[in-house]
Each structure stands twice: as structure tokens, then as C-alpha cells.
Amino acid sequence: MEVIVMNKLKVAVALGATCAGCDVAILDLNEKILDVIEIVDFVFWPTAMDFKLDDLKALKDGEVDVGLYHGAIGTEEDEEIAKILRKKSKIVVAFGACANFGGIPSLTNMPYESKMFDVVYKESPSTSNPEGTLPQKETEIEGTKLTLPGIRKRADSLNSVIDVDYYVPGCPPMVPLIEQVVDVLRVFVEKGTLPPKGAVIAGQDTLCKECGRTKPETISYKEFVSPQEVKEIDPDLCLLSQGILCLGPATRSGCGALCTKMNVGCRGCLGPTDKVDDHGLKMISALTSLLEVEHEEEYTEEDFDKLLEKIPDPLGTFYRFTYGVSMISKLHPDKEE
Amino acid sequence: MNQELNPNIVTIEPVTRLEGLAKITVLLNDEGNVKDAFYQVVELRGFERFVQGRPIEEVLRITPRICGVCPIPHHLAPAIAADRIYGVDPPKTAKLLREMMALGHIVHSHILHFYAFALPDFALGEKKEPGTHNIIGLAKTFPDVAKAAIKARGDAQKIQAMIGAKATHPVTVIPGGISKGVTKEDTEKMLEMSNNIVEFGKLGLKVFEDLVVKNKDQMALINSDAYKMDTYYMSIVGPKNTLDFYNSQTVRVIDSKGKEFAKFESDKYLDYIDEHVEPWSYLKFPYLKQIGWKGLVDGPNSGVFRVNALARLNVVDKIETPLAQEAMENMYDVLGGKPAHHTLGFNWARLVEILYCGEKMVELAQDPDFYGPKFREQLSKDMITGEGVGAIEAPRGTLYHHYKTDKEGKVTKANIIVATTNNNAAICLSVKKAAQEMIKKGQYNDDGLNKIEMAFRAYDPCLACATHAMVGQMPLKVEIYDSKKNKIRELTRKL
After folding, report:
1. What pLDDT, on a 0 to 100 scale, did the predictor assign at position B448?
2. How far apart are CA B60 and CA A2, in angstroms?
3. Which residue of B48, B67, B281 is in closest CB contact with A120?
4. What is the mean pLDDT of chain A?
5. Quick one: CA torsion of A293, A208, A233, A271, rounded to 10 degrees?
6. Do A174 and B166 touch (CB under 8 A)?
């Protein structure tokens, strides 16, 4: 990509439906944040600094060199802010799992039998609500109307509403990935060059390549067990071969294997690798092929269904962070609360 | 500048540097005095629904995403609930490691609030241009303090990450323990960082002494009636009513005179706390069940209570670590006794707690069981009791997670009362009280409006948590209506 470079980069950090963990992740550069300030001017970062949306709006179109967006698109306001960021920025980066794939908030896109308002305001055991009061978009108090905005019904990825130049996955992006972003920015400042459009700033292999655990030639397991039910977790052996569900074979590397190093199975917050569209389907096919190797024969759909039945929450596990961009989510109709 | 009431709607400096999603509506009477004020939380996410059907050990990995600023309490409270679902008491090493995470987390969160959000307001003087009143502005004016704050917070985050794999969105705590222990080498590093946090804790109190306690105007503000409120206070306490964030499940409530009103185990919380629903806010209003909901009023006949740093110190009889105990005594001497009702005193209490956490973390790292081979129990599905409550002192106060599961350990019902929700009624009252003091006979100015906002901000309200929502774009908005129902003033925080 070719972009005209300023001396110091103007960076904006905007947000949608987010937990603010991505902001904290940037702060976790700690002392290095002072180095960042040497090459970057933050022109907008409402969580950490005293900016408002009008400050972003007041900038010229294309005046921001790099616009980071974290959080999912959950409301019309999120979408509007994303569009303003796009207009003001030469480069837009989807930062974190929510902006990349919908993230944990997109679990709300799944079909549920219960209604959120009933769960929170009527069925909650600590709630005393004999009259069944529910929050209203308009409440009149002595002639004055108090208003509340409507509640969103789904959360989507950033690229569902605007064109995105680069992707930094992770929940939140880990410090090594953010340092990679800083390196990209530094090269941009010094040489004016950028990675090819659409690049994912993270590892290019699967997590298995960087996990460091020994993988036996055949991975043998009859069923998956919860981590608390395992007698002892071998710290050096592949977790899948110990029956601990791990999304490593389907997930992008780059995190430094933080979770698996601590005996914890990957849940895929970096999303799939470049060639894969649907993270959960990739994981299911990875499991199938591992099983086929093990059984040296075609694994029937029925056999596979049996295995899946033993995974208590396959959708919420295989699509923990990517449900918002999954193929299966497109089968679910939107429902109003 | 003072202005007369007029029908113009003016947008002034937005409220920033807090976790968003609220608006404040002020209604005036014919005389132009404040008739009522409403603090409305305008977002809801409903984590209680979307954890349904998921295994309890996976819920521990989902609920931290309620809030990226305080993910550790949302990992640990459901973990305690999960221990109880299995009816298991984790080994000592696991408890020490979990407590280390909890305390490291308090240090991180309190530093973030005090140094990044609160300190720039009174350390940097009048605000001149956007982008200056923040931690970077602070770094320019007080470079040594800012650097020390960055380092101490960074160390606190590193300690959490050494135990939890990641400080933001930890993953290692499992029902019955923790997935991996730490090494001797890790422990030595944590001890060194904890010692540094003690030093930093002392520095923070000195900075506060110099900038606030010795400043007459600041103290007059802290002591003014606009920022005092007569409520009950709630906190978890250790044995002998000591300050405790993780270990104990005993919750104590005192009245505004300091007398014990209730003491109960967290799994009995439903006997003591009820939540009220108002149609004009997505956030519920917890209150003391025995007293009942009497509306948004303070005083001994109202069930409104407060949590968070100052509430904790009000509730405890003693802090076990010497430096923090001394700092607490000094604070109450200056504030005129215990309990203190000073809403702006929350910041001071946070600094006392940073020092306590540092001292306690040093103790933990020196415990011979801190590293060792036994950090988890092996559990089985036949142990599952089907229900568990876990409570913890999160940075912003008492947090309850309550789950029911099927016999496989899949969640069927979840109920979460977070710290900021516990303070909801109190925040409403504080805002109204400040508004009544700052707007009289239709006279108000920007400074007064900002002081209304300070009442709100003192609670460090984390609305991402409170609504189980993702922090977001919804504004904090202050709307003022005259007696003719005309909107006469609006302050917005668009982001």
C-alpha cells in the first residue's frame, strides 16, 4: 500500500461493543508506551484520554494515519463511529477478537430459548419485581420523558460495515502482537512502506507450531474431559492427546502459546489461519482427521456425532470468538428482544 | 461563567476517562432549584443469559469478558462458585496463587483509576485543550510519579499474568484449584515486584498528602455536604473483621454509625439483598432486604448501601498489615472518624488499599506453600451439587456470582450482582445531592456541572461490569429540564 507519511503518525483509537480490555492491552506496553509516543500522536482515544467524538469529527478526511477500532459492531452508533473512523483514517486496523470476528459479544447472536429481559428483570432470584417492571424506551416522570436507547440484538465484526486494511486478532491482542504493530508503524514512519492490504498482524502458522508440547504420532482419545477431572496434566504432552479440548490445530499462532503453556486448552481467540474461512468447521475437520488417522479408516458421520455429543457445548467452544462471522450464524434469523 | 436559565441547549466539555454508558437528567422546579435528578444506565448485555448451557469451567473463561478493566474478579468469583458446585476446598497453594492474582488486580485497577482518571483533574489545574488532561499530560508535569505509576501497574499486571497466563482475561483458574503452579524463580520475581509496590503505595499516599490533604480548597470540597451521604456499607471481611479481598466468604454490613447491621456467608446473599427495577434505567437497584426499598433516599430507614474502597475500610475493624493500618488511621483522623461518609474519600481509600495489597502480596510470596506440587484437586461429575455462590471484593466493591447447574455441570441459571450495581442507588443519590448544591435558583456554571460529574466519578463506576455490557459508545449525558419541561441544558459525552 502507498500512503503519504507524516513525521509523527496520527493515531486514533475508537471503540464499539468492547470490554475495554484492548485499551488495557495497549497500556500493558508499560514503559514502552513512552517509546510509542515518540512516533505517535494520539489524536483520539476516549478510554484513556480526554477526547470526544467531536474531536475526531473535526479532523480532515484522511488526516488520521492509523485508526484502530476495537469492539464489535453492536449498535447503530458503533456503525456510525466506525464509518467516521474510516473516513478520517488512511489506514483502518481491526484490533482484537471482537472487531475481527464479533468475539465473545457475538455469542449473543446464538438462538436462545429465554428472553434476556425475563432472565435479568423477572427470573433473577435476587430481584424483587412483583409488578413485572421492565426498562422502557420512554418513561414519563411528572411530565418529563426519560428515554433509554433500544437494546441491540447482535454483535458483528468491523468489516461487516466498513473496509478494513489490517487485522490484529487476540482477546485482547497480546503484547508481542502489539509490539509487532509498533514495528509496522515504525517502518511506516521511516520508510513509508506497509504490509499488503488485508494482512493479519500475527503468526501465519497454527498454534500447534508454536505450542512446544510433544505431539505423539497418533492422538488417541475416546472422549474429552474437563480440565478439573484430569488426574494430572502432563506439562509437556499435547493437550488433545490427554483428552483436553484444545483449538490449537485450527487457530492462528502468534500469542506465544500463553494458555497452553499453563496447561489450558486454546479457545481460539486469534481466529483461524489465512486460508480458513470458518474457524469452527476447521476445528471439526481437524478433529475428524486426527481421529481418522487414529482409526485408520473412514470415520462415519454417526461416529463423529457421538464424539460431538460428548462435547458439552460445541457451538460455544468451537466458535467461542468467531461466532459473529461463522457460516452457522447466518442460519439463525435475527430476533427482537 | 454563571448563566441565567434560558432555553438554549449548550454542549460543553464531555465526561471522559471513565467506563461509559450513563446519562444524568436533572429536573428543576419553578424556582430553578433541583427537584429531581436521574442517573440512567443505558445499556444491557445479559451475560446471565449467554452463559446458559455452557459448562461451569468454560463460564470462568467467558465471564472475564464482562470487563477488560476488572477481568480477574470475574474469573475468581465464578471460580469460588464452581468450587462450591463441586463441594471442594482448593489446596492451600491454589488459594495463595488466586489471592495473589486478586490483590495484583486491585493494584492495577486502583492505579488506573487514581493516576490515569482522577489525579489529572486536581494535579494539572484548569484544562486548556483536549488531549492534555490525562496520564500523558501527567507524565509531562509529574514525570517521576507517572513513571512510578506505570511501572507499579505494569508489575501488578505481570504478577497476574505469571499466574493467570494473561492479566486481561486470565484462563488458569479451574474448579478445585489452578491449572499450573509457579516456580521458585517466578516467586522470587513476584516478591521483588511486590516489594516495589509497597514503596509505590507509600509514594502514592505522600502525593495525596501533598496535593490534596495540604490543600485547603481540595479538603473543603471533600468535606462539603454536597459529597456526604448517610448510608449502610457492605464488604467482605476476614476473621476478626479484617480487610480481605479473596479468602473470606463472610459479608458484613454496618449502619452509618458504624454498628454491625448484618453478617452473613455469601451463599445466603439472597436473604439479605434484593434488587429493585425502575423503568428508566437498565441497571437494577440492590438494597438491604430487611429494610426494604424505600425509594431513592438515604438515611437509616432506607435500604440503600454502598460498596467500594471507602465502604470496605468503613466496614473492617482492622487492616492486618502495619503500614496500611497506619495509613487508614491517619485517613480517619483527617476525615473526622469512622465510618466516613465522604464520597470523594473513595480515592484516598484506594491509595490505602494499594499499600495493603503490596504488603499482603509480599507475605503471600514468602509463604512456604506459595509454590508447590499440590495446586488442584481432581474432581468428578458425581461430586456436583448443582449450585454455588462465589463472592469477592472487586476493585469497585462486593461482587456476587451465583450459578445453578445440571448434573453434568452445565449452567442452567446464572445471577450476577456486580460492584457498580450495588452502588447504583448511592450513585443516583450522590448525583442528586451534588446537583442540589451546585444548581440553585437557576444559577449554575460549567464548574458546578463538572462537580456533579465528580460525585458520579468518585465511585469509579464500571458500567461495562454493571450492565454486563461491553463498554461502549453510549454517552454520559447530563440533561437539565426547567419546570416547563423544556430542556435547557445538555452536556454530552459522545464516546
Report:
1. 72
2. 44
3. B48
4. 87
5. -110
6. yes
Q: Is residue A3 part of a domain?
A: no
* A51 contact partners, CB below 8 Å, separation of at least 6: A43, A44, A45, B16, B130, B131, B495
Instruction: Name which of B179, B417, B431, B463 to mutate to probe chain A: the one with the most chain A Cβ atoms within 10 A of its Cβ.
Output: B179
Pair (A18, A83) in one structural domain: yes
Among candidates B46, B50, B55 on the partner chain, residue whose Cβ is nearest the Cβ of A312: B55
Residue B280: list chain A partners with CB under 8 A. 135-136, 139, 141, 146, 148
User: Between chains, do A135 and B38 touch, taking CB under 8 Å as contact?
Assistant: no
Displacement of CA A34 from its chain's centroid (Å): 27
Query: Does residue A81 sit in the same domain as residue A187?
Result: yes
What pLDDT is stored for residue B14 in this prediction?
29
Question: How far is A161 from chain B, CA to nearest CA, in Å?
Answer: 16
Question: Count of CB atoms within 10 A of residue A274's CB?
Answer: 9
In terms of residues, how long is chain A?
Answer: 337
Measured between beta carbons, the chain B residues lying within 8 angstroms of A317 are 58
- Does the beta-carbon distance from B112 to A27 stay under 8 Å? yes
Structural domain tally of chain A?
A: 3
Q: Is the pLDDT of residue B340 over 50?
A: yes
The domains found in chain B, sorted by start residue, are 46-368+381-442 (1.10.645.10)
From the CA of B70, how many Å to the nearest CA of chain A?
9
**What's the grid cell of residue B309?**
474502597
CA atoms of A93 and A105, how far apart (whole Å):
19
pLDDT in tens, B3-26: 333 222 222 222 333 334 567 778
What does each C-alpha distance from A193 to A12, A184, A204, B368 come to in angstroms?
20, 9, 20, 54
Residue type, B238: G
- ipTM, two decimals, is 0.92
Question: Is it the case that residue B157 has pLDDT exceeding 80?
Answer: yes
pLDDT over threshold 60, residue B249: yes
CA nearest A131 in B: which residue?
B277
A297 vs chain B: nearest CA distance in angstroms?
32
CA distance, residue A77 to nearest chain B CA (Å): 7
pLDDT 10s digits, A175-202: 999 999 999 988 988 888 999 999 999 9
Asked whether residue A222 falls in the same domain as residue A278, the answer is yes
C-alpha A287/C-alpha A294 separation (Å) is 11
Residue A201 in any domain: the answer is no
| Chain A residues closer than 8 Å to B275 by CB | 124, 126-128
- Cell numbers for B287: 438494597
| Sole residue written with cell 484449584 | B177
In angstroms, the CA B263 to CA B266 distance is 10
Q: Which residues of B touch A110 (CB under 8 A)?
A: 50
Task: Say how far apart CA A139 and CA A134 lie, in whole Å.
Answer: 11
What does residue A244 show for φ and ψ, rounded to 5 degrees?
Answer: -100, 120
Who wins on pLDDT, B473 or B328?
B328
Instruction: Give the pLDDT confidence of B288-304 residue by residue, as tens digits.
Output: 999 999 999 988 999 99
Average pLDDT estimate for B428-435: 86
Residue span of the structural domain in which A322 resides:
207-331
Cβ–Cβ below 8 Å for A226 and B281: no
Find out whether the peptide bond into B339 is cis, omega within 30 degrees of 0: yes
Q: Which long-range contacts (CB under 8 A, 24 or more apart) does B311-314 make?
A: B311/B233, B311/B234, B311/B235, B311/B397, B312/B235, B312/B243, B312/B349, B312/B353, B312/B393, B312/B397, B313/B243, B313/B338, B313/B349, B313/B352, B313/B353, B314/B233, B314/B235, B314/B254, B314/B258, B314/B338, B314/B339, B314/B340
Task: Give the residue from B65, B135, B483 with the most A CB atoms within 10 Å of its CB, the best one to mutate.
Answer: B65
Q: Which residues of B touch A43 (CB under 8 A)?
A: 131
Same domain, A186 and A123: no
Helices (H), B212-293: 216-223, 269-272
Grid cell, residue B247, equals 479468602
Does the residue A197 lie in any domain?
no
